[in-house]
Amino acid sequence: MITNGFTYIAVLVFIAALLVWLQRYTKSKFFDYAPPIVLLYLITMILCTLGAWDMEATKPAYSVLKNNLLYAMIFLMLLRCDIRKIIKLGPKMLGGFFAASVSISLAFIATFAIMKGPLGSEAWKALGALCGSWMGGSGNMIAVQAALDIGEADMAYALVVDSIDYSIWVMFLLWAINLAPKFNKWVKADTTTLDEVSRRLEEDAKSNEDKATFVNLIFLLGLALVISAFGQDIGAALNSAMPFLDKATWTVLLITLSGLIGAVTPVGRMAGSTELSNLLLYSVVALLASRASFLELTDAPAWILAGFMILAIHGIILVLLAKIFHLDMFTCGVASLANIGGSASAPILAGAYSGALVPVGVLMALMGYVIGTAGGLITANIMSLLA
């Protein structure tokens, strides 16, 4: 069992490196069905389940790196994006986001109606808090918990579902990206605008004749880490002064603004941001998966089953809405994860689809923070009528 924090990080990065290397040099078609990023998530979860590292002993290393690297990754990815072109994606993305939000609310209500026996008639409160998290983030969950006066014992079940079911959903959505062409054809989605915006942004990046030199790489890495550090410090200060947004939301706003500004300066034309952001992407995915154990599926089985029912119903409703309104896979996937995973996951999924579209994931996640508390409370009150 690994107890040293540095060894823990080294193993995670090596697994990511090995998978990427195998895809590159074996050219196996296996990776067309199981991309390295999905395998990384799965293998890391399996190792966590087998107790490859001590969760408590390695927690400090995880805590120090996860958010710091995540914010640096978002900044670097945003450097490749021209917000003026992203805006051309238009109201379709907004519609996709609210379609996901509504389907999540309906899924919670339907699941409580079915599972209120095993869960208990008062489970609507904890489910309401979980709904707040799955429409926004942890800050929304805490807000709903306070509004409904939910005890810590009841919240423990919601937290288990939030951890385990969410992790499986992230892995599923990363895998489902491979189905995008077939899905888009089935729902008759017009991806012309999305493809054109993505293509132009990627061509802009490729047309840059600058090479990813040592100077570029160390400058971009240093800048990203500084932006991440000071962004969190300023985010904490703004949260103290204006607590209507939590620290994480303020930080994401600041990082996003920094990246979008940087994208229209000479820094945005420096080669190397793609390589560095991908490196951080795989590192963050490995870190997230390293705290999710399959063994936790045995904790509160009825609640975990309810969580999977919610995700299944949400997915079915979202697919039906996609069929009716011709929503593409990217819109559905990122909208779903922007609600359920927030700023920690939506940019990762968007980046896995196309690094040029990360701002879409960030903006959708921020919208989730806005509606999460109200959505959770409304859903909770509807469920209370069924108790």
Automatic annotation (TrEMBL):
The chain crosses the membrane at residues 6-22, 34-53, 65-81, 93-115, 155-177, 212-230, 250-267, 279-297, 303-322, 334-356, 362-386. Keywords: Membrane, Transmembrane, Transmembrane helix. It holds the Pfam family DUF819. This is DUF819 domain-containing protein. InterPro entries: DUF819 (IPR008537). The keyword Transmembrane applies.
